[in-house]
Design brief:
Rossmann fold, alpha/beta, disordered C terminus, 32% helix, 7 helices
Length: 284
């Protein structure tokens, strides 16, 4: 069903418009928008990894919330800005402009429905800047709108205890942590017999890159034909379940905090107000 990992009663599209209109305290109800991508993740993982992880973690987090915390998930955005993987079949990419416009228009729809707290949980490392730009634009348009752009892995979790020092330092895509989490969320899509180890060469400038990660722009094919950037071989379902449990706990706590917090309400000015057309913001 469309709600995926989410409890059906916490999936916003399952409500009718009259039910949404009648929700109490919409200003403090947290709307969660998982965003992902459809892009290659090596020969052992499906192209849906980033979407599955973002939606799966949030669904498990919402299931842990007490009924007293009003929060709903939206259907995930499944296509993202994935140009760095476009040389691999299965990758579907939007331009940055298209993704930004999509995020802005979804955000405007959330605001128009009466909600004032939007949490964007992004699962794709190639587009956090777009999420941040959209959040800023929405804030400039609406002084009572709290939009939090975040990353699935930003909250506390236990993945680091399973990773080698090299993995923590150089892995970027389809490595140990993502593979373990997919073994927990969608094991039927994982083909461990096809997994290989592949790390990028250390970037040869300690000043530009103290940890050796690429400091320049890159595409996945720069590091070889597999599409993997890391070592997925040590991943196990048990590790994935532990990582999922820690992420879900942390996100449940974060959603609870967002429900109760108050932050810098801003009265709209009566002077210098610009009409919103596309990316033009109200003056502040």
């Amino acid at each position: 069903m469309l709600h995926g990992y989410n409890p059906p009663q916490r999936f916003l599209p399952y409500l009718s418009w009259t039910e949404i209109a009648g929700l109490p305290d919409k200003a403090n109800t947290v709307i969660v928008l998982p965003t992902g991508a459809t892009e290659q993740h090596g020969p052992h993982l499906p192209c849906a990894v980033d979407t599955v992880i973002a939606a799966g973690v949030i669904g498990h987090a919402l299931a842990r919330l007490p009924e007293s915390v009003p929060a709903y998930a939206m259907a995930p955005i499944t296509y993202g800005k994935s140009e760095e993987h476009l040389h691999f079949p299965g990758t579907v990419t939007l331009s940055g402009e298209t993704l930004l416009a999509t995020m802005n228009e979804v955000g405007e729809s959330v605001y128009r429905a009466g909600f004032r707290k939007l949490l964007i949980v992004n699962g794709h490392g190639g587009q956090p800047q777009v999420m941040e730009m959209s959040a800023r634009e929405l804030r400039l348009r609406h002084g009572d709108f709290i939009v939090v752009p975040s990353f699935t892995w930003r909250v506390p979790h236990v993945a680091g205890q399973y990773l080698s020092e090299k993995e923590r330092r150089l892995a970027m895509h389809a490595g140990h942590a993502e593979t373990a989490l997919m073994l927990a969320l969608a094991p039927e899509t994982v083909r461990m017999d096809r997994a290989v180890v592949n790390y990028p060469p250390a970037f040869p400038s300690p000043l530009l890159s103290p940890d050796g990660r690429p400091a320049c722009a890159w595409s996945a094919r720069d590091f070889g034909p597999s599409g993997i950037i890391g070592d997925p071989l040590p991943a196990t379902p048990e590790q994935g379940l532990a990582i999922l449990d820690s992420l879900a706990d942390s996100w449940a706590a974060a959603i609870t905090e967002l429900h109760t917090l108050e932050w810098a309400p801003r009265a709209e000015p009566t002077w210098g107000r610009a009409q919103h057309t596309g990316h033009v913001q109200t003056a502040i």
